[in-house]
Amino acid sequence: MTSTSLPDSLIATLPGSSYTDPDLFAQEQERIFEAMWFCVARASDLPRPGAFRTVDVGRESLLVTRARDHSIRAYFNVCRHRGAKLCTEETGEVKRAFQCPYHAWTYDLNGKLVAAPNLTKMPDVGRTEYGLVGVHVREWLGYVWVCLAENPPSFEEDVIGAVVERLGDVRAIEAYGIDNLAVGKRIVYDVQANWKLIIENFMECYHCATIHPELTEVLPEFADGYAAQYYVGHGAEFGEEVKGFTVDGSEGLDRIPGVSEEQDRRYYAITVKPQVFINLVPDHVIFHRMYPVAVDRTVVECDWLYLPGVVESGKDVERSVELFHRVNQQDFDACERTQPGMSSRLYAKGGVLVPSEHHIGAFHAWVHERLGTRQPE
Ligand code: FES
Ligand SMILES: [Fe+2]
């Protein structure tokens, strides 16, 4: 028996409080962002040993850097002495060590404690034992993924598996050689909306005809409201007159050589829970990372990746970038328009999903499962 009898066409969303309750957000931070693989940076953002970036994952600040052996390391950004935030800048570069601004405890790029005032008079202080504490790091698709859990879930299952589930085969994404592409453009969006609204929006295309005129012009099948993510392995085909994935359908950039005939002139979208969206088109890849900051605020960093030759030659990527930049703005505007409604008494029990959105129900079930909460009957 369902407590609210819905017609067969509709299934319930999460209740409004899922998008507004700070306690629930804290649980999501603990059980989702701090427990799963979380994409923190493009590896090329750390070009040399000592280059660093700080990033919040769940409730923790992390310091991500490149060690002397060129491997990427991620540490809790917390001094082992008395807990000061070690690095306060968002990005930067140190020569060989991180020095705490409080009492000058100093750690090398491997996290080892290498200097501190009077340290020689404390020979019993273990340099590794009191070094920075690292978290698990993986590199894939040219991005750095971290996991704060002591025993991380399988990267192969959770991250690579999400791509395989969507595309049917890992070779389908390998064809784009994403790790070798160059960042042609990066735009950071500060979105006043809960991260789940952004995922839900990305998963459906029921809104495409209403808010994405440029996108539906390029991908006419989107006008029907069925998202590219609805069918396994399906990529939305470019319109007949369309030359490239650009704001006006004009010619795009150099096609990525590995892209197959089957993948040519098609758009594929992939969601890697909890915070990554990947969009594949023949000449570029659009890669989103969400950084949930608060229950009603999410920073989204979006990279447009092209063949290195395209970026180096200074080719004009403007019309190419403009298409998805507009899509992003249109989507994030919609999410921001939705966020206030989440705290309306009208939405206390949530809203409804139409058939072309029913797959979002699986996302909601996943949220319940992660939080150990039960879906209302
Ligand atoms: S808190 Fe960092 S050196 Fe004291
Ligand atoms: Fe959209």
From TrEMBL:
Identify the InterPro entries for this entry. Answer: Rieske_2Fe-2S, Rieske_2Fe-2S_sf, Ring_hydroxy_dOase_asu_C_dom, Rng_hydr_dOase-A
Spell out the SUPFAM superfamilies in the cross-references. Bet v1-like, ISP domain
Give the source's domain of life in one word: Bacteria
Every Rieske domain range: 37-146
Keywords linked to the UniProt accession: 2Fe-2S, Dioxygenase, Iron, Iron-sulfur, Metal-binding, Oxidoreductase
Pfam families assigned to the protein according to its UniProt record, in alphabetical order = Rieske, Ring_hydroxyl_A
Locate the coiled-coil region(s) and give their ranges: none
Cofactor(s) the protein needs: Fe cation
- Provide the GO MF annotations for this entry: 2 iron, 2 sulfur cluster binding; dioxygenase activity; iron ion binding; monooxygenase activity; oxidoreductase activity, acting on paired donors, with incorporation or reduction of molecular oxygen
Write the protein's name: Aromatic ring-hydroxylating dioxygenase subunit alpha
Q: Which organism is it from?
A: Streptomyces mexicanus
Q: What is the lineage of its organism?
A: Bacteria, Bacillati, Actinomycetota, Actinomycetes, Kitasatosporales
